[in-house]
Amino acid sequence: MSTWQQTQTPYGSGAAPPPPGFFPQGAPYPKADGGYPAAGGYPAAGGYPGAGGYPAAGGYPAAGGYPSGGAYPPPYAQQNVPYYGAGAPENNSFNAPENFGFSDKTIRKNFICKVYSILMCQLLITLIFVAMATFHEATKLYIREHSGLSIIAIIVTFGTLIALACCEDLRRKSPTNFILLFVFTLAESFLLAVSVSRYYPDQVLLALGLTTLICFALTIFAFQTKIDFTVMGGFLTVAVIVLLVASIVAIFFPGKLMTLIIASAGAIIFSLYLIYDTQMMVGGDHKYSISPEEYIFAALTIYVDIINIFMYILAIIGASGDD
């Protein structure tokens, strides 16, 4: 006889049997010390699980494991919703981290549209400067006679570039970020105008056309390809350093061949940078992505890539032409 049967008295010994289905037939009463459940707690006839249906010892949740207040747990779909932040969520809501939801298509689309809107304004300003320096003789003459303006433009360009790239508060605070970006665009456009004033108009137009086609094709490629270029940040940084050193060496050893080599390498490097920065902006399945709050920084990096591609293509065309 089992331990349970030795310590318990079956209901059939002398007492009137309970109604059918109230207790399991042939089973002993529960213990007398509070073992009976509350009124109506017994299941209906046949409601007990079959043999072995009860969980093993310790199978019930630990103390405090049941929901407070007798509330049912939320549906399974809600249980899979990620939870962020400290404390219990209220009203089925949760505190999301700062960058949560950037993968959402709507937020990503709005961010990309904002970046390209800013970029188009920058390129339009630059195009006006380039057109004036290419086709307007009075502007060409003025630029050549006031070489000191180039030094001021260089200082302003590097100053605003460092401020926007290194100071997160400046590039995220409006309207300070827009003012700095506008000043940088003006200074960079003037330097570009100084550079194109040394070339023939047909060379400048050819460079503009090639740059437009290359940048458009690279942008489409960056959006469509499954290759993740965001992991190439270290390689591209090293490549730019090598290019800078080679450019300094070329100052002391000038030559047409050296110019072609450096300009070709520069065009390739900044073409890869354009793909890299575009995928950083797009985010999604790429390993690294830029925050949606960094629309100024994203527009700045892509603008610099396009300007460098144009300058190196123009240098290739100039070096390839007749002296």
UniProtKB/TrEMBL annotation:
It is a multi-pass membrane protein. The keyword Transmembrane applies. The chain crosses the membrane at residues 115-135, 147-166, 178-197, 203-223, 235-253, 259-276, 296-319. Residues 1-27 are annotated as: Disordered. CDD domains: LFG_like. GO terms for cellular component: membrane. It is found in: Membrane. Its main location: membrane. The keyword Repeat does not apply. InterPro entries: Bax_inhibitor_1-related. Keywords: Membrane, Transmembrane, Transmembrane helix. Belongs to the BI1 family. This is Protein lifeguard 1. It comes from Acyrthosiphon pisum (Pea aphid).
